[in-house]
Amino acid sequence: MRVLMVVAALVLGSMGATKADAVGYLDLPLVNGNGEQRGGVHPDLPTDRATIEQLLAGYRAEGISPVRFKALLWQYWIVRAAEDAGVNLSEWDPQRTAAANKAVIFAVYDFYAKLHLTHPDTLRWMGFANIGAPAFAAGMLDLGSVPELRWFSTMLMSMQKHIFMDLGAMHAAYLHGGIEAVREMRDAGIIDADTTAAWEDPAQAVMEFSSREQNLVIADQFNRMRSRLLPPGEIVTYAITVAGPMPVPGGKTPAQYRPLFGGPLPAFNYADRVARWDFLSNDTVPAYERLSSEAVHRIVQRPFADRVAEYRATTRLIDLLPFTGSDVESQPSK
């Protein structure tokens, strides 16, 4: 009996310590760091900005290492970015259908447009992200309309949220707190030294931020999509590669960049990180960098819904037939 009482006391004590840690918001694991579930990086964290600001001020005043309040700090900048985008973080759930999430999907990309249009000479990556977004958003909606493919739509929506939580939060930190806020994110272990250095001159960091997005943020999620057994992820992700247009003027489609046996199909799968980054870093990003600021402005200021409509499968049916549209530049008519 005494042994049982000791065990019970240890269990209850452990539960109490866990709850106390959670209430203090220190050393919390990033259980939703990839953005695949509703809300922020941990379900116990508040989503109210004023509450988080008070907590952070207290931790800083106590001289607590930012590493210990990493989750709270990251949550704060995600909340700031969500506020700026007009998105309710506590209700943002990629597990909902694409149709149910359509307003959020569009709001995020409209936010990217707003940041670029407001800071065109500084936040140039946001222009790139917005220009590439219509095809991505169209994919979410198209895949979400087929019950058997909705899991893939969910993964694309999770990627969108993951990118927003990472790069969107960094942009919020830079805009509202300057380079010192970005450095605090580094000190907390949210971002690395190379990313921090890129923020010293964000106008020149389109390639660096794109590399982080593709090689670090969403690489695992693309791998999981490709390795899906039923329906076969290899087939679905290759179909996405075939269908994938290139919204950046002057950029090539995957099939144009690396054709299979010189034909109308691509010789790589976009879900493959190495192949994807080879394509983006050697063709897509340079094509964006060659655009004049006026050209970027013209594209980004167009209503996002109109641009998404141009990339929906029903609109591009002829282009998606490999022997009819693959050798034509993929820019829809304006």
Folded structure, characterized:
This protein has 334 residues and is mostly helical. It has one domain. The protein is built from 14 helices and no strands. Helix 3 packs across helix 6.
Overall 3D shape: globular
Give the radius of gyration: 22 Å
Q: What is the succession of H and E elements?
A: HHHHHHHHHHHHHH
- CA-to-CA gap between the ends? 80 Å
Number of helices: 14
Q: Estimate the helix proportion, in percent.
A: 55-70%
Uncertain segments:
1-22, 323-334
Summarize model confidence as the mean pLDDT: 90
Work out the count of structural domains. Answer: 1
Helix vs. strand class: mainly alpha
Q: Estimate what percentage of residues fall within beta strands.
A: under 5%
What is the β-strand count?
Answer: 0
What does the main sheet amount to?
none
Describe this protein with a few key phrases.
334 residues, mainly alpha, 62% helix, 0% strand, disordered N terminus
What is the element layout, followed by pairings?
Blueprint: H1 2-24, H2 49-61, H3 70-85, H4 98-118, H5 124-144, H6 150-188, H7 193-198, H8 206-217, H9 219-226, H10 233-243, H11 254-257, H12 273-290, H13 293-300, H14 304-311
Helix pairs in contact: 2-3, 3-6, 4-5, 4-6, 5-6, 5-13, 5-14, 8-12
Short description:
This protein has 334 residues and is an all-alpha fold. The chain has 14 helices and no strands.
